[in-house]
Design brief:
The protein is an alpha+beta fold and about 200 residues long. The protein folds into 2 domains: about 140 residues, Jelly Rolls; about 50 residues. It is about 45% helix and about 20% strand. The protein contains 7 helices and 8 strands; from the N terminus they run αββββββαββααααα. A hairpin with a 5-residue loop joins β4 and β5. The longest helix is centred in the last third of the chain and has 24 residues. It comes from Kaistella flava (ex Peng et al. 2021). It holds the Pfam family cNMP_binding. InterPro entries: cNMP-bd_dom, cNMP-bd_dom_sf, RmlC-like_jellyroll. This is Crp/Fnr family transcriptional regulator.
Length: about 200
């Protein structure tokens, strides 16, 4: 039995769909249980959906020519994740989207937001703001990888994903930050030392 609490809250509070119309949104998405390590998207496939995480944790990553993973994004509860280039331009994806934990997700079709706006024109402004925030976050992430120190990137990660450190292995965190696990260990030790000295 699927739970709809988070998707319902997202529609009602984030997109501001009228409460009396929430039940009519069921036709616009489908429910899927995803086992740990199961893939929702693989390199070479065309992404057909945006994934809303009702419960659990997903990650999106790419592999370089040496087979090294580069994690682009984590998606815990209430997050959306998708390969937008593949979804919107019908291109083969360069990414994998995989469940880090046993998860429950809603698959939002390519036309989900278009259909929602046609049905509820009032949500168009909120949807546009969400898109602009997504673009801003991507820009900030690129700038952080290019310009920030490992410590600064780690602090930004903690603010963005406050509960994920306890849910993923350290090598995944290091991959997201673009550093080695050894460098991450040094960063954490240095931060612990600073906190000890100032406490």
């Amino acid at each position: 039995m699927d739970s709809r609490q988070n998707i319902t809250n997202y529609l009602a509070e984030v997109l501001e769909v009228p409460a009396e119309a929430l039940a009519s949104c069921d036709n616009f998405y489908t429910f899927k249980k995803v086992a740990k390590n199961e893939f929702l998207l693989r390199d070479g496939e065309i992404c057909m959906d945006t994934f809303f995480v009702e419960k659990g944790l997903l990650r999106m990553y790419s592999l370089d020519r040496n087979g090294k993973e580069h994690i682009i994004q984590f998606a815990p509860e209430n997050w959306l994740i998708s390969d937008r280039s593949s979804l919107n331009f019908n291109q083969k994806s360069k990414y994998y989207i995989e469940a880090v934990e046993d998860s429950e997700v809603y698959l939002l079709s390519k036309d989900f937001f278009t259909n929602m706006i046609e049905k509820f024109p009032n949500i168009a402004e909120n949807n546009d703001m969400l898109l602009q925030k997504h673009i801003r976050n991507l820009q900030n992430r690129v700038n952080s990888l290019l310009a920030d120190t490992a410590e600064e990137r780690y602090m930004t990660f903690i603010k963005m994903y406050p509960d994920i450190l306890l849910r993923v292995p350290q090598w995944m965190v290091a991959s997201y930050l673009g550093i080695t696990p050894e460098s991450l260990s040094r960063v954490r030790k240095e931060l612990a030392r600073k906190n000890f000295e100032t406490s």
